[in-house]
Structures
1.
Amino acid sequence: MFVLLAFLSLTFELLGGYPDRLFRAIGHPVSWIGNLISWLDRTLNDAALPPVSRRTRGVLALASLILVAGSVALALQWPLSGTWPGLFFTALLASTLLAQRSLAKHVAAVAQALEEDGIAGGRTAVSMIVGRDPESLDEAGVSRAAIESLAENFSDGIVAPAFWLAVGGLPGAAIYKAVNTADSMIGHRTPRHEAFGWAAARFDDLINLPASRLTALLLLIAACLMPGASPANAWRAVWRDAGKHRSPNAGWPEAAMAGALGVALAGPRSYRGVLVDDVFMGEGGRREANAADIRRALNLYWTADLLMVALFGALAALLIWHG
């Protein structure tokens, strides 16, 4: 039933998303998780302690976060299990942990800003979805940043929570989302978080392994269906470049997207004045990406996303048929 739950949740989020009125009224589950992470950071992350102690406290913080997220999700799912109305309501709750519509909306806004307002508008729009220094980006840099964000967040924000929803139900998806949010907030190599966020960063790497590979496969298959995309180049880019990325997971969807579109992603970029000298994904492709390439990336994303929804639907039907 968890596979059916994942299919229904994806369908609900695809059709309706998370209403802005509801967000303004009560916030969002990710913002609630973020508040807990901020409290754990303030309470446990003492800069006066040695790194070993701060790492131990980071492990404790991660364990506490997992316990709270998993327990709350289980408490919500348990009384709803066993009935069709309960399944549909659980799917509605789980849909809040997915981001199909919002991801596309934010990335499309970058393309629109570049087209209507030029580089200044593009920099402002892309600064809403990436952490790199926007003032250092030209049009190609803005376009690459938007496409990279689309590829990586397709894996982290959609495929991974759907995968863990299918494996572990609402608790599985909630725990994944909590860990992923912790990685984005404290999993940085900064003086404050390098030790304390170590556990969150490493555990996030681990639980994203299956989804990152699945995302690359979905993008490769989508490239077979989309005119102008190249599945052969996507495969070559993944084979050649994915393992060279500084992240054990981000390189897979980024390389697949880069190869399919014929652009190069990643590469050197600046975060708060610090240059990250990363290698290019899809280095053999055309590096000067533009707003049109963002639109092409969105088309590839939607094709891959609908493929995933269909995959979960077919698998759920198969399991029900044989169950």
Note: Strands lie at 265-266, 269-271, 274-276, 280-281.
2.
Amino acid sequence: MKLLVAEDDPKLLKSLIHILENNKFSVDGVNNGDDALNYALTGEYDGLILDIMMPGMDGLKVLQSLRASDIATPALFLTARTEISDRVAGLDAGADDYLPKPFSTVELLARIRAMLRRKDAYLPDLLSVGAVTLNRSTYQLSFRDEIQSLSAKEFQILEMLMQQPGTIIPSERFITHLWGWDTSVDTSVIWVLISNLRKKISAVATPMEIRFIRNAGYVLEVKNDQ
């Protein structure tokens, strides 16, 4: 699925693109309303994520122009404006949802899945690696007849690893994914979460192992006999 992200903060735009690409979306990013409108008018996108306050056209005018042009692409507003009147204005402009800043990654992804579900194009609830399954709705890890419940943070880390088995993921990417780009959380928290994950993975006897690669990060290894 292909998303368009329009955000004028370059650091946040980069972070959003990174998060979405890690979750298997194809993403185009722009930093102003005029480009957002021109890109969206192509009709090539499954969903739009729009900031309201942008150079050129603001997000409200972008979406109003798209709706006037019969472009019905689902849209989610991300904005620091949290007054009820602002939310109503966004929804009246044709938005499907409204997420105020700051926001968590897990809520952002849930809102995007809900938005895309309304057009029958959304992330599957089950993520599988071989016979191991991660349920995105219940945050449960299952293998054969065994089920293990995960916390929200444990789920997000394992989801990233299962989406890219065999790929080393630096601790900093986990931190950005879980807490956003502007956080003071350090890597020791990731170490604790992964330690807990290893115990839960072992408890259901999955053929998976999270390995630490010195000076690089963590990688999910899957045994061939799964």
Note: The chain has a mean pLDDT of 86.
